[in-house]
User: What shape does this take?
Amino acid sequence: MAIYAIGDIQGCYEPLQRLLDKVEFNPAKDHLWIAGDLVNRGPLSLEVLRFLKDLGHRASCVLGNHDLHLLAVYYAGHKIKRHDTLDRVLKAKDADDLMDWLRHQPLVHFDEPGNWCMSHAGIPPLWSARKAKRLSQEVEAVLQGNRHVEFFENMYGNLPVRWDKRLEGHDRIRMIVNYLTRMRFVDRHSTLNLEIKEGLSSAPKGFIPWFQHPSRKAEKTRMLFGHWAALEGKVDVPNVYALDTGCVWGGKLTALRLDDEKFFRVSAQPKKKK
Assistant: This one.
């Protein structure tokens, strides 16, 4: 059995199938971990959702910001954005089943015996992997319960900007979600800057990438994340693996085989036959 962790698919179903062919994925014995953003911007989000759902226990997915956006549109009537490619999902005959499956996915996948943890954007420096999992379960309880519409109605926003254990209600849930699905740069207090989305050189004054924080509590946990295509998969920090290599922007789709930590990549577009 092999486990393959894959970065942001974002509706790029055809590159996903080429990547699985490249690693000789066997759904009878192998396992996929998907680092969030299954959907949006790419052309075949519906096919991606159906494929991963049909894999059942062979696929472990965490929710990304684009996945949560789809759910917010579906359940709470939020507006489609200009570059969204979600219409086919929303109109699909099996949309109810797909959305119910999607909202039952976690925000953190933590294999404590194997010392692997995966979330879409990473883990803020002031949390351990175990604490991130515990706090993510607060969000999941709301998502998977009968208050999910209320959650999606109040999900959007950049405030609060820093974790405080005394946070309550929508502010507490939004803070957890923003750390786990939108984070890039933080300051020494783990304050979020959600405005800057470019590469490492674009860090605002006083801010650093979350994985470069000198007192990161999860530094000994092997951390898998996506979300940050501008990194191009390049992170020179032990135990940190960036999986988003910008497939939807014409880059590549990346998989990491956890057994030997070997990377596999395919281009967004197949090579032309000579």
